[in-house]
Specification:
With about 750 residues, this protein is of the alpha+beta class. The chain is built from 29 helices and 27 strands.
Length: about 750
């Protein structure tokens, strides 16, 4: 089965015009900001580590390309590049130079799989030929007279020819493209082996030999194609998470025009500020805010939570959730490319393309395959010919060596496990951004939690609104509306519907980790943490969270809040502690509030009133001591710490920057998702090690047998195909085991040193 089918899909119309093609790629690219753009191309001919290395190496040579990462399971390449409106590179032309057709990736699917269709047709032809030749071979091997035997050999040759020509082209086309561009791949030895076996049989037939091996050559093709077809189906099954995400987005949406008319427009034409009508039974097309109507939402396919949620005016909705009640009028806040669902899809793609240490080892080993296997086959042939003088037997042994020595199992050992792990987490409402994070997660010995929005739900309620002057509450609400901080949201909600703020602000600015600063003439207003907003040495509200409103440093109002612990927090902390993992809270909130939550969760170590850079310095200090830190946070002020940690996790309620800086994002409310992530990573590590062991053992055991002449070409094809199928099947075992899930972190290896 190995690699590199020759099913080529041409690039989009205009492929002959380089400038037009480059312009098309530029227009289809995504702007990442700061002059950086991202293009995703589909590569139907990529099937192995050698292909991945060739594509990435060619693209990285292009001026302006900063990243080229191939996703084996989806056969896509993500290219991050710098360019302007006047100049863009023709990536398709560069790929064509090394023999790879490409086209722009699209979520539009027609439900057809051309690769699978071609493989099935080739498999049918090979199967028909092999079965009929085997029937004739029974008579030959049973002792038919010479005339009958020769006639049956001629008929077998005629039956084998369609299989060799039609079914074998899957391998020949790929091998030829590789060779004529000065490289090799795994289909080169496969093609050589098949053609040599057929040629040897034709030679024996013409010379009226006692036996010919048309049954072996056609059966060889049938087995190889059967293995490749199964591999294609299993890869598609493993990767179905991304396809499921893409299918959550509708093709278009009903847009309400200014005159009240409703038009159905494609998803790509939806812009921020448009009013959309989401009928009952439809999915929300893009992120937005409800402006009219009230209904229930089914979020199970997006967040993994079965309970319906209430939507009413002011509710923020994410793309992909289903409206199951009444019609809603939605104000789009982002375009389709910027929606939460699109972000989750990109995260899944990134997770499948991650380069872990294991994967780099496998890729390097697979890249050495072609020169090694060709050398071993030639040495085997010359050695046997020198020792026996039997050219026929020497060529047969060389064919078996060519076929049996395949690193497909080694090349699939890591990426298949990562793909399945990402899919299983997706089914539980968890998104993985980086496949290598699964490996890093097994090293953690320290877990740091942010408090607000992480250990707590981030939903605060202002408890002393009745004690505040209406004028000051309105003033604070006007400032709070520029921030997404839970305390700001609570103040803005409490001040909703009151008269306008008594002050007209010249500017409002959020100071990350501190609060909001507003300027009105010469006066400076601050709303935020007491130590930053006020000159007062202390503001004491017991264990309540407090936010202060000040004018020129003088406290004018104090806001007290209540917050609830996130579901699953207690169970997660207890499980981590029982596994010997150090647990600590790193929060920017005041000490009294952090102490209250730490007491509820029985966490002894905590640090409060930390600024973003202080969190980063603390993580670096732990890393310097050899600690492997898992950071779990959600706020904008947590983003640097999330990026600095060995591995990081964020809830979906995190800011865009926080989600982008984390390795995993869980979509539900329960913190037990963190336990699911760690368990999945531990199980994935076990399966990767098993796959490596099986792949190495296969080659160590099988190659000597082939060199010794104890393996026929047909047996070699069976063994080679079976090795890859076993590795992929072993990776698919991850699902059932994780669904049951062990009750402790028995697979982890936490350190016993405490902070």
């Amino acid at each position: 089965m190995s690699c590199c089918s020759g099913i080529a899909v041409p690039i989009t119309a205009g492929a002959g015009d380089k400038s037009a093609r480059a312009e098309e790629i530029r227009l289809a690219s995504r702007d990442l900001g700061d002059g950086l753009r991202q293009t995703i191309l589909t590569l139907p001919d990529v099937h192995c580590a050698a292909c991945i290395a060739a594509v990435e190496r060619a693209l990285r040579k292009i001026s302006g390309v900063e990243l080229a990462r191939v996703n084996l399971s989806s056969r896509r390449v993500t290219i991050n590049w710098r360019g302007n409106d006047d100049e863009s590179s023709d990536f398709a032309a560069e790929l064509a130079k090394i023999g790879y057709a490409s086209h722009l990736a699209s979520i539009e699917e027609d439900g057809q799989d051309p690769v699978l269709s071609s493989l099935l047709k080739a498999l049918a032809v090979a199967g028909f030929s092999a079965m009929n030749i085997m029937i004739l071979s029974v008579s030959v091997w049973s002792g038919a007279d010479p005339a009958t035997r020769h006639a049956f050999h001629l008929i077998s040759a005629a039956l084998a020819l369609p299989a060799i020509v039609y079914s074998g082209r899957v391998f020949y086309r790929s091998a030829w493209e590789a060779l004529r561009h000065g490289r090799t791949n795994m289909d080169v030895p496969i093609s050589v082996g098949v053609l040599l076996a057929f040629a040897l049989s034709v030679y024996d037939t013409l010379h009226n030999a006692a036996y010919a091996y048309f049954d072996a050559s056609t059966s060889l093709l049938f087995v190889l194609l059967a293995g490749r077809t199964l591999d294609h189906l299993m890869r598609g099954r493993a990767r179905s998470a991304v396809g499921a995400l893409e299918r959550l987005a509708p093709r278009g949406a009903n847009v309400i025009r200014a005159d009240g008319a409703i038009d159905y427009v494609p998803l790509s034409e939806i812009k921020p500020g448009m009013h959309l009508l989401v009928a009952a039974g439809e999915r929300v097309p893009v992120d937005g805010v409800v402006v009219k109507g009230a209904s229930e939402l089914d979020c199970s396919l997006v967040s993994g939570e079965s309970a319906w949620k209430r939507a009413e005016p002011g509710s923020a909705l994410q793309a992909g959730v289903m409206n199951v009640g009444n019609p809603l009028t939605l104000l789009a806040t982002v375009s389709a490319d910027g929606s939460f669902l699109a972000e989750m899809t990109r995260m899944m793609e990134a997770a499948e393309s991650g380069r872990s240490t294991y994967r780099r080892i496998a890729d390097r080993a697979a890249s050495l395959y072609a020169p090694v296997v060709h050398g071993v086959a030639l040495l085997s042939m010359f050695g046997w010919f020198y020792g026996t003088g039997d050219l026929h037997k020497s060529v047969t042994i060389a064919i078996a060596v060519l076929i049996i020595t395949c690193p497909c199992a080694l090349g699939l050992a890591v990426p298949m496990v990562q793909v399945v792990a990402a899919r299983r987490l997706f089914e539980r409402g968890i998104m993985a951004r980086d496949g290598s994070a699964f490996e890093r997660l097994n090293d953690i010995d320290t877990v740091l939690f942010d408090k607000t929005g992480t250990l707590t739900l981030g939903e605060m309620r202002l408890v002393n609104a009745g004690d505040l002057q209406p004028r000051l509450l309105s003033l604070a609400a006007a400032m709070a509306r520029v921030s997404r901080h839970p305390a700001s949201t609570a103040i803005a909600l409490a001040g909703a519907g009151r008269h306008t703020a008594p002050v007209e602000f010249d500017s409002l600015e959020e100071v990350h980790g501190c609060g909001i600063e507003g300027r009105a003439g010469d006066a400076v207003y601050r709303l935020g943490r007491p130590s930053w907003a006020s000159n007062a040495t202390q503001v004491d509200l017991g264990t309540s969270s407090a936010t202060v409103l000040s004018k020129d440093g003088e406290t004018t109002a104090v806001f007290a809040f209540e917050e609830s612990v996130r579901p699953g927090a207690r169970e997660l902390v207890q499980t981590l502690r029982s596994a010997g993992v150090s647990v600590r809270i790193f929060s920017g909130d005041r000490s009294a509030a952090v102490s209250s939550i730490a007491g509820q969760l029985e966490i002894e170590a905590f640090s409060a009133e930390l600024l973003p850079d202080e969190k980063v310095e603390a993580i670096r200090a732990l890393a310097a001591k050899g600690r492997k830190v898992l950071m779990i946070g959600d706020g904008l002020n947590d983003a640097p710490a999330l990026a600095a940690a060995h591995v990081s996790i964020a809830p979906s309620s995190a800011t865009d920057v926080g989600r982008s800086a984390s390795d995993f994002v869980f979509l539900g409310q329960s913190l037990l998702a963190v336990r699911d992530i760690i368990l999945t990573a531990a199980r994935a590590d076990v399966l990767i090690r098993q796959n490596f062991a099986m792949a190495i053992a296969y080659n160590v055991v099988s190659v000597p047998f082939a060199i010794a002449g104890l393996v026929t070409p047909l047996a070699a094809a069976l063994a080679m195909s079976l090795s890859s199928i076993v590795v992929v099947g072993n990776a698919l075992r991850l699902g059932a085991r994780v669904k049951k899930g062990p009750r402790t972190f028995g697979a982890t290896k936490p350190a016993t040193v405490k902070i």
